[in-house]
């Protein structure tokens, strides 16, 4: 057995360390992985930076009965601070701004009294991830040890290759039990229901990307209050002006614009406070995704060797493959929808002719069949979208994400909204539109709530009991290798628990849910004014259930930085433009509204009037968006202050250096005169 | 007489200098200005920087017969280089990039072999202007010498106060006779007619702002070739498809979008090559306009004392005064247009009833009256716009300019286009629209050509002869004070000539002309496909006549930097959006086009089809604009390279400093452990 001769292997490679060991990140190998591969990477992780290693501390625990090896990775405070310096992590300086952390200036950073807790746990874990990924294959490393078939190219990130080749099954940072209890108490406890979300704590614990999502979710939910309030008001008051739908729709459209602009401002405020705003975007100098491939070349900015994939090839793949395939999928979704409506019409007809109980159940059959088929198609499409996105071979994770977002949005837009468009503008049946919209919105939300909140809650309770049982059994059968002192039993229990947790898949699905809801609320607001109310009701609980999921259901995700919500901002803005068109068309088609106009106006002129109104609303919308600055004034001033100060400092430095050089310029000038006279 | 006791005054203040004196900038005082004021500012200009002066060289020439004093200002190479360093002027470095010039690094800048010609003449003049304006009133300077009523506040720019109080009549940089001949030969000589403009030479001579205007003019003119070609093709070929107007219009609309996007790319390319692109916009740290006023406060970024004018007051003035006044002016222009059409209809009627010669002249009366009134109203409005803009009290010149541009655009848009809208969409008379459009476009261009090219040409010839005569007379009567050696007779003749030249009013009117032309060509292209051809014809000569004006008719303007065309980009883009709406409406109204559709389509559905087409074109336009990157790839790479390199340098520096500090961090950590153990 490979495990047996491996046992001594560790001892040879490792020097035992007496430093206190604080595990931060867990690496789980797939069961049955060759010992050589494990030993090789453990050695790489422990080796010094100079020798091409990560210079981090590792504890290895081997569970004999499952053939699984688990690594616990940590690092000394000194090592992590140096890495933070090299990674340009931003920390609060004594001047109150966020500056790139520098070890030789450490005493001027806030919170540097206690160096061990100067970096947050999330920052430490992010650093460890970065350092692990930065361990690269040298010229001599041609393949993963023990696996000749997994070739390595010089410069490949070894750990990424382990993950992509399935040798490493999971890699996740550990939760901070104390901190997560404190955060949970602030965030999702029922008694704090009316409080604001602890956005800054969330960011400290989960990083900027997830912090930004919850800030957006909270901001959007608050923004739903006025339309929800007016919707309720319309429902309960007897005031039934003919204009009410129109007034409500116009209010909603302008409100959506103001909300999106106000969010941009709030977002840039958070971005500044979190030290994310000052960066120039350096896309090309960023390292490519692990899966990016191409012929080896030099990076045009950094000069480092990296694969290069010409843009025209990507465009060819995009326009030649992605566009037709996605177009075909959208067509399929469209025809499915048509089929549903024909089937429904047929069922209605049958029931109308012969009102038996059997035929009554027939009425509900098309909806049920449609729901099932859509579910299957949707799953299938998501797989296709991912394959296409991989196939496009994007260099950066951010552009990969944005292209995937667009693919998912397109399909979900057609899937969820095309039937509404069909009812509204082809069938032109306002009653059906209202009931269809209400049914879609409310059922999707109820299903979502159950799936997201109830099911995981039950699972978590059951899982904990299981883990307790397993731990009792395992204590007897597991074989442990210690390199940095004995592992705490509570941490092992924690890892056993977190190992069974689901991996957090990123913010994509959460944003997508909000995006669809935003569409339901604003695209047809004149048809169903109560939509905002239902959405508000959903989001108030959504926030708490999402919070619970983050804290208790999922493995902790690695912190990622973000300065805005990326492609989603554009997606929401596009919906808000389409909403102007749909609402104007809906109101223009309403026979009630037409009655209000003088009777001698021709039908053509009525259409022209509504088109004119639509253009005016679009122009106002554009003007509002243009006039509201994207950054609050104080943030602008602070950013300028920083830029100005660094410029001044450069200037002062130059002047100091120049006083000794002044003679030099004089000499140069004299020299010149002499040369000319000669 | 004050001039008499002033004569000795100069001698007391000035030390005679033996350095070769090269005059660069001319300052002309108003006739009859008190000698004390002149002496005071001459002293300030000559004093050392440390003593609050400009440390520049001055020659004063007094013309007794007119009581006019003229100052010639220059500076030593050393002085100018130091100022260039402090002003962060960008020069080409040996790595090929533009970097902020630094005296102690001078040998690494390209062209530093010959330091006297290292800075271009335009740069030297720009530096002198900056240094003159940087001479500020101290605590002791309470008023302009000799004029107790012209109060000074500590920190006021003295020379700006001289200009705004009318003590200085003119201040302009001298032309470089040799260089302007060379530039002119490349630029507007008939034999070089087919050549490209020497954009880089223009930029070197006139600065980036004017260089950018001519680059835009040239780029736009070339972009007119395809629509002009198609317009001609339609005219000469017998192919008379019903769709031809529609095809032409759609081509034009997409072409306009591509042109504007392509210009943005070309613009950012120029901006990069001219060293303008790398700056973060530091608005708040820029010095306010000379005319900006408010209560004294501190600049929020630099901390320097400066007037502060709260934003709400400006908004109050803008929405409370500017908006109503401008709105009223637009109404007046609209009613004038209505009046014209009524008068014309009346005259037509009279002539139709009684076709006498007298009544025939009557037909042309309304147009003549309208033209005259519009001319007067336009002049009047420009004055109002300037007063309103001053009243709004903008802090920066750029925001002052942009607000003035918007005001002028609004009025000229109504003035020039509203009658076309009236004919197209109210009267719905396509024949009248075509003839009206042709008349407006062609007459405006002919008038413009005559005014801009012919008249100045004649003036310049006469002026030269006059100056020769004056010089002969003046040689006897002028009294000259020399401080830096005798003034060259040719330079004095040159100044006498340039003094009588018109001041160049900036690029505003030139852009406005192009803006209106762009509107004529694209707003109604389906009605008058030949518009692009006429515009092209005009611009080919316009470029040369503008070039001639710049070189021979106007005083040389001070070079100003610019990285784009500012508010004009937005203005052109807005027109290109409006053009989609107008063209779709025009084609939709065309009875010929309607005949092509199946006859069973209702009128309402025809309108809806055209609205749908319009929305699709707008969406395509938006997508095209979104998909074409605003910056060419190579510029992006270069910019990122620069940012990356400076980041790397910072890093390397930090690492070097850190090696000695590494112990320090270790000490800190040890200290901490000790403290905890105690």
UniProtKB/TrEMBL annotation, chains A, B:
Protein family according to the UniProt entry: Belongs to the anoctamin family.
Transmembrane segments: 213-236, 242-263, 318-343, 363-381, 404-425, 518-537, 567-589, 601-620
Cellular component aspect of the GO annotation: plasma membrane
PANTHER family, alphabetized: ANOCTAMIN (PTHR12308)
Anoctamin transmembrane domain mapped to chain residues: 202-641
Location in the cell: Membrane
Topology class, membrane: Multi-pass membrane protein
Keyword Transmembrane set for record: yes
GO molecular function, one term: chloride channel activity
Name recorded for this polypeptide: Anoctamin
UniProt keyword annotations, A-Z: Membrane, Transmembrane, Transmembrane helix
């Amino acid at each position: 057995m490979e495990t047996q001769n491996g046992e001594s292997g560790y001892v040879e490679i490792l020097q035992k360390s007496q430093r206190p060991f604080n595990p931060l990140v867990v690496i789980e190998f797939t069961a049955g992985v060759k010992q050589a591969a494990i030993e090789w990477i453990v050695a790489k992780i422990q080796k010094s930076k100079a020798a091409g290693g990560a210079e981090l501390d590792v504890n290895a625990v081997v569970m004999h009965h499952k053939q699984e090896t688990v690594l616990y990775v940590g690092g000394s405070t000194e090592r992590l601070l140096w890495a933070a310096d090299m990674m340009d992590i931003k920390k609060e300086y004594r001047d109150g701004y966020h500056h790139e952390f520098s070890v030789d200036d450490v005493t001027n950073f806030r919170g540097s009294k206690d160096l061990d807790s100067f970096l947050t746990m999330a920052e430490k874990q992010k650093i460890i991830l970065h350092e692990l990924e930065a361990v690269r294959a040298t010229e001599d490393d041609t393949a993963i040890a023990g696996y000749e078939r997994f070739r390595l190219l010089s410069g490949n990130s070894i750990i990424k290759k382990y993950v992509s080749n399935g040798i490493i099954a999971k890699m996740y940072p550990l939760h901070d039990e104390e901190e997560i209890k404190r955060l949970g108490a602030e965030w999702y406890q029922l008694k704090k229901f009316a409080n604001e979300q602890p956005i800054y704590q969330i960011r400290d614990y989960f990083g900027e990307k997830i912090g930004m999502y919850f800030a957006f979710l909270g901001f959007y939910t608050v923004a739903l209050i006025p339309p929800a309030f007016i919707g309720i008001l319309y429902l309960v008051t007897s005031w039934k002006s003919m204009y009410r739908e129109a007034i409500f729709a116009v209010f909603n459209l302008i409100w959506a614009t103001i909300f999106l602009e106000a969010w941009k401002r709030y977002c840039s405020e958070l971005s500044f406070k979190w030290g994310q705003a000052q960066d120039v975007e350096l896309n090309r100098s960023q390292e490519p995704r692990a899966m990016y491939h191409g012929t080896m070349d030099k990076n045009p900015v950094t000069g480092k060797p990296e694969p290069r994939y010409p843009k025209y090839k990507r465009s060819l793949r995009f326009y030649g493959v992605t566009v037709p395939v996605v177009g075909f999928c959208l067509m399929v979704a469209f025809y499915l929808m048509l089929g549903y409506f024909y089937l429904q019409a047929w069922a209605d007809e049958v029931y109308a002719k012969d009102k038996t109980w059997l035929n009554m159940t027939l009425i509900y059959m098309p909806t049920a069949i449609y729901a099932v088929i859509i579910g299957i198609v949707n799953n299938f499409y998501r797989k296709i979208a991912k394959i296409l996105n991989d196939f496009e071979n994007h260099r950066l994770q951010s552009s990969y994400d944005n292209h995937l977002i667009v693919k998912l949005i397109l399909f979900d837009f057609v899937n969820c909204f095309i039937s509404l468009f069909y009812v509204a503008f082809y069938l032109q049946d306002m009653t059906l539109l209202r009931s269809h919209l209400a049914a879609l919105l409310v059922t999707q939300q109820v299903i979502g709530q159950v799936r997201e909140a109830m099911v995981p809650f039950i699972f978590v309770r059951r899982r904990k009991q299981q883990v307790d049982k397993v731990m009792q059994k395992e204590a007897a059968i597991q074989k442990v290798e210690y390199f940095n002192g004995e592992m705490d039993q509570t941490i092992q229990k924690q890892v056993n628990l977190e190992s069974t947790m689901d991996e957090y898949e990123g913010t994509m699905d959460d944003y997508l849910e909000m995006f669809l809801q935003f569409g339901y609320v604003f695209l047809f607001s004149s048809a169903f004014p109560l939509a905002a109310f239902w959405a508000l009701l959903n989001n108030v609980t959504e926030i708490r259930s999402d919070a619970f999921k983050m804290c208790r259901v999922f493995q902790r995700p690695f912190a990622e930085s973000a300065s805005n919500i990326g492609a989603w901002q554009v997606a929401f803005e596009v919906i808000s433009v389409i909403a102007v068109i749909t609402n104007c068309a809906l109101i223009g088609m309403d026979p009630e509204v037409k009655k209000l106009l003088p009777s001698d106006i021709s039908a053509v002129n009525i259409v022209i009037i509504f088109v004119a109104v639509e253009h005016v609303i679009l122009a106002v919308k554009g003007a509002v968006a243009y006039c509201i600055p994207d950054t609050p004034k104080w943030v602008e001033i602070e950013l300028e202050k920083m830029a100005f100060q660094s410029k001044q400092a450069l200037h002062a430095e130059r002047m100091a250096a120049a006083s000794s050089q002044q003679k030099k310029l004089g000499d140069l000038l004299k020299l010149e005169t002499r040369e000319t006279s000669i």
